[in-house]
Design brief:
There is one protein chain. This protein is mostly helical. The longest helix is centred in the middle third of the chain and has 28 residues.
């Protein structure tokens, strides 16, 4: 399985692509990229041999080659490389925007939902269920055989204590009541 690039490598690559795009756009603004979109017969007039292997390696070298030769076929190839670079950059920028929660292409950013605070009653129910699980009333210790009955007993006991009722004298409801009262006091 191929190794995925690290976050730092991706950031470095995106920064490199941004620099490459600036260079190519500067050349286009200077008039060298007039045929970057691909005029008729640009690549066919001068064969692939006209573009050296170094110029194919990066847009900067292609631009330098363009300035030296003043050749019409090179801007076309630089344009192709630039489109690939822009496509890669766009996917990286979109991923970065999604990660940081920024709007993408007119769509509003999705706000992260704030985690709700757990209520005292829920904490009391949790404490009561832990007590039930620790006892052997609804099955062996560490296991609850009839969870629905156990949950009913815990919620009814917690509700009564929340309203101010007294704790039961004995049995599992007393144990539940004591655990719940510690939270709801």
């Amino acid at each position: 399985m191929a190794r995925l690039p690290s976050r730092r490598e991706l950031t470095d690559r995106i920064n490199q692509l941004e620099r490459d795009i600036k260079i190519v756009s500067a050349a286009a603004a200077a008039g060298y990229g007039a045929r970057a979109i691909g005029g008729a017969g640009t690549a066919s007039r001068i064969g692939a041999a006209a573009l050296g292997p170094l110029a194919r390696a990066s847009p900067q070298l292609a631009l330098a080659d363009l300035l030296i030769r003043q050749d019409e076929s090179i801007p076309f190839r630089v344009g192709e490389e630039a489109f690939d670079a822009v496509e890669a950059l766009a996917s990286g920028v979109e991923a970065r925007a999604r990660r940081e929660g920024l709007p993408i292409a007119g769509r509003p950013a999705v706000s992260k939902t704030k985690r709700r605070k757990t209520t005292k009653f829920s904490k009391a129910i949790s404490a009561g269920m832990k007590t039930v699980k620790a006892s052997n009333s609804y099955g062996p210790k560490g296991k609850i055989n009839n969870a629905k009955k156990a949950f009913t007993a815990v919620t009814k006991t917690a509700s009564k204590i929340n309203k101010g009722a007294k704790i039961a004298k004995s049995g599992i409801t007393r144990k539940i009541g004591l655990a719940v009262k510690r939270i709801l006091k």
